[in-house]
Amino acid sequence: MHHTRNSFSSKIGFVLAAAGSAVGLGNIWRFPYLAAKYGGGIFLLVYLILVVSFGFSLMVAEIAIGRKTGLSAVGAFRALDKRFSFLGYLTSIVPMIIFPYYCVIGGWVAKYLAVYLTGQGAQAVEDTFFKGFISQPVEPVLWLCVFVGVTAVIVFFGVQKGIEKASRVMMPVLVVLSVLVSLYSVTRPGALEGIKYYLIPDFSRFSPLTVLAAMGQMFYSMSLAMGIMVTYGSYMKKDSDLEKAVSQIELFDTGMAFIAGLMIIPAVFAHSDGDATALNAGASLMFVTLPKVFADAGALGYAFGAVFFLLVLFAALTSSVSLMETVVSILQDKFHWNRKRTCLLVLIACLIIALPSSLGWGVWSGVVLLGRNFQDFFDFISNSVLMPIVAFITCLFVGYVMGTKTVAEEVRISSKFRRERLFTVMIKFVAPVCIVLILVSSLLDALHIITI
Ligand code: PFF
């Protein structure tokens, strides 16, 4: 069925497409603010352990399922076992929740690019600048429209191939630029405390919430537990080295997140002494911190800022395109609508769902769901509830229904599968047990039944 779809990943390298999807706002915007909030070094440590153990195993499983069946999530799980058709649908809900609010943040990045291009970088340094912007009812929504609009045009005209090819140049430049910014950032006066905070784990800050946040971030950043890697796997050739591809995506994705943390967290200390409110800034952290770093470097810094936000926007677009493509193809497969109609519907639905996320920072900030505004609520439901549930069921499915051996056989068609034992133990035992413990304890915490 997928052959008739307008696939962007069928014609280009798998790693390139998957890395384009994986590296995005999750790495540059989301990872640093979570690391800052959840204790720095301890979060980083937990995150790294999760990526090389669980993240690796789940990514291998998802890609292998896709490659074996040649189908995207809904069809793949159904083809393997009819009883698990529901898993395909459950995974499909995740990108539908993420896509709208992802576009809200994408709109913020577009706004910052415009700020730097029009020479207003100095104003962006003010602490009130960002809050003033996101709390407005109209302007952020307009930027949201711009971002969704561009994404939809790319998906509709099927020019993803061009975009992904361009990202071959843009992504490495983004890495180089980020390394430069982080070098500058870590050498600011006062940054040393931030480097220590980010790199040295403080075990007294550990809690199940750290693991839940790190796990949600891992799924989000590596584009796992949402069916997308199954779809990518369905386009992967039988002779390309699956295990190596996963290692490369993992390294690139985690490397980018690590550098982003180094860019932002030491700068928080340099500019605000690492006081708790600054570290807890959440979604706004990148937008209030980076302008200060750029301003420190003067005129050159502002020029840097413009190029930097352009590249971040690009990384965000490659991810949002893959999110929208996933949603569009699920709907097309299910309802047999044509592409134009599906794209238009997804575009409109996205705007409607994204609206509360955007307004929740201003006029609708009074609406609180589970202690969160709309956007943080959507973020929590997808990353901390749905994705762990999907990952848990996937582990059970692979471990006890499909069999880890079947996956291993698929992987071994093209790879040595050196980490097979790790894969088996993670999928069958460690991951499911950990997910249940963490999910239950943090849900009880969110509902104020226990405090962790
Ligand atoms: N992994 C992307 C990021 O880190 O920004 C987000 C994402 C993109 C998630 C595409 C899911 C997806 F299908």
Q: What features would you describe in this structure?
A:
- With 452 residues, this protein is mostly helical.
- The protein has a single domain (2-446), classed as Hydantoin permease, CATH 1.10.4160.
- It is 77% helix and 0% strand.
- It contains 18 helices and no strands.
- The chain has helices at residues 14-22, 25-37, 41-69, 73-80, 85-117, 127-134, 139-157, 160-186, 191-199, 208-221, 228-234, 242-272, 276-279, 285-296, 298-335, 339-359, 374-412, 420-446.
- Helix 5 runs antiparallel to helix 15 (298-335) and helix 15 packs across helix 16.
- The N and C termini lie far apart (47 Å).
- The structure holds 4-fluoro-L-phenylalanine (PFF).
- The site of 4-fluoro-L-phenylalanine (PFF) has 17 residues, from helix 1, helix 2, helix 5, helix 10 and helix 15.
- 4-fluoro-L-phenylalanine binds next to helix 1, helix 2, helix 5, helix 10 and helix 15.
